[in-house]
Structure formats: C-alpha cells, structure tokens
Amino acid sequence: MTALATAAVPTLRQLGLMVQWQMRRHAQNLPLFMLLQVLIPVATVVGYGLLIGNPGRLAGLYLVTGAPTIALISVGLVATPQFVGQSRTEGSLDWLRTLPVPREVFLLADLAVWTLIALPGVVFGVVVGSLRFDATLAPRWWLVPVALLVSLTAAAVGYALACVLSPVLAQLMSQVLVFVVLLFTPISFPAERMPQWAQDAHAWLPLEPMAQVIRAGLAPHDFTVPVRSWLVLVAWCLVGVLAARWALRRRG
Fold first, then answer.
1. 77 three-state secondary structure
2. Among 189, 183, 220, residue whose Cα is nearest residue 56
3. Is 60 in contact with 110 (CB distance < 8 Å)?
4. Residues 236/157, Cβ–Cβ less than 8 Å
5. Please, are residues 111 and 199 in contact by the beta-carbon 8 Å criterion?
6. Taking the C-alpha atoms of 99, 102, 104 and 105 in order, what is their torsion angle to the nearest 10 degrees?
7. Which of the four pLDDT bands, split at 50, 70 and 90, describes residue 251?
C-alpha cells in the first residue's frame, strides 16, 4: 500500500504542475476565455427567448437546461481544437512532448483546464435562464459528476480531432460544430421537432445524451434519461479519451 501511494505521488504532482503551467500560459487571456464561456449560454437563453417570445413552461425548461449543456460542449468541441491547433502551430505542444512526463498527464491537465473554464458559463447559464423564464429547478447531487462526464467527453473528442487533423482543418471543423451544436442538435428543443433521419443520427451521437443527462440533473421531475443514452454517452467518453491518448502517442 505504501509503495502504491509513493508511486502515485509523482504522477499527481506532475498533473498539478502541468495544470499550473497551462493556467499560467493562458493567464493573460484566461479572463477573456471565461467571459466568452459565460456569454455563450447567456446569449443562447436570451437569443432563443427573443425568437420564441414567451415560451411555455416545458419549452422554457429546455432553454434553461440547454444553456449549461451548450457551455460544456462548446469548450470541448470548439475551444479545445482551436487551442490545441494553436499549440501545434507555435510548437509548444512539441516542446511538451520532450518533457519526461507521461502523455496521459498532458491530456488530463488540458481536460482539467477546459473544464475549469467551462464552469462559470454553466452557473451563469442556469441562473440567467431560471430568472428569464421563471423556471423552478431541483438540481440533484449527481449533477456535478455528470457535468464532469459531459465536459470530459466533449474535450476528449475535441482533443483527438485537434491531434489527428491539421491545425487549419481542426479550427474549421470547430467553427462548423458551433452551428451544429446551436442550431441542429436537440439540446434546447425536443428531438421530435427534427426530421426522422436527424433523430436517428443523434441516437448514436453523444450530443443529445449530453443534453439529456444535464436536463435530468437540473429538472428531474420533468425529464429522465433512457438507459441507452447513458450507454451512448459513456461509450463516447471512453472512445474520446482512448482516441486522444492514441493520437498523442502516435504523434510522439
């Protein structure tokens, strides 16, 4: 037991140092990153509210619970590919690979940073949405680990894309994903409004399950999560983490 703890300390210390390095590296732009992540869910709630007008209770709940989901997804699938692509272009990612640190530590440190950046947007999105639509929420204790699971899945998939694709293509892909997440994903509206082929596609993609688990965690009396959605989300999380890990090792 003592040997195991001793072996774990260096890795944990490496992870802590890598997180500190990433935070200091983005110190100048970190407030702007967080402000942007706050504006995205707030703008989603306010903007959709202007389009819809005075939605009913259920439609309002979809908007309120969809805002934090969009905040978590946008960091992972949009911001992560852009920043990783920038790191590859400027050479800092190659420099990190020269350090005597396991590649998994790089991945975990980056995922921790992106999750921290997303948290303010999640909180503000819920607060503003609740005030705007007078929604009554009943958050469950398991909402925190579920939000971390959603953030981890999105960031891992985005990280893998950024490592496999060229920096330019990764940034273009992130811009496309912005429109897909905001307009063509059943996050802020029911999936039944989409064509059948789109419903079938989202049944296998992680975006709808992400929204479902956040909705159920915030408003459990109105929403539930099918077992199939849990399985799809966990499967995508495992695939994303393994793909990012493989990409980092392959390009080393």
1. helix
2. 189
3. no
4. yes
5. no
6. -60
7. low
pLDDT digits (tens, 9 = 90+) for 116-151: 777 887 888 888 888 888 888 888 889 888 988 898
Between 20 and 236, name the one with better pLDDT.
Answer: 236
Continuous H helices in the chain? 2-25, 30-52, 57-74, 80-90, 92-97, 103-133, 143-164, 167-183, 196-202, 207-218, 227-250
pLDDT digits 0-9 by tens, 201-212: 998 999 999 999
Residue for token pair 């640190």: 101
Chain position carrying tokens 């909180």? 123
Q: Which two tokens stand for residue 70?
A: 């969009």
Tell me which long-range contacts 227-230 makes (C-beta under 8 A, separation of at least 24). Answer: 228/203
Structure tokens, 125: 């999105």
* Beta-carbon contacts of residue 80 (< 8 Å; ≥ 6 apart): 110, 114, 154, 155, 158, 159, 162
Global confidence as pTM: 0.83
Cβ contact 124:43 at 8 Å: no
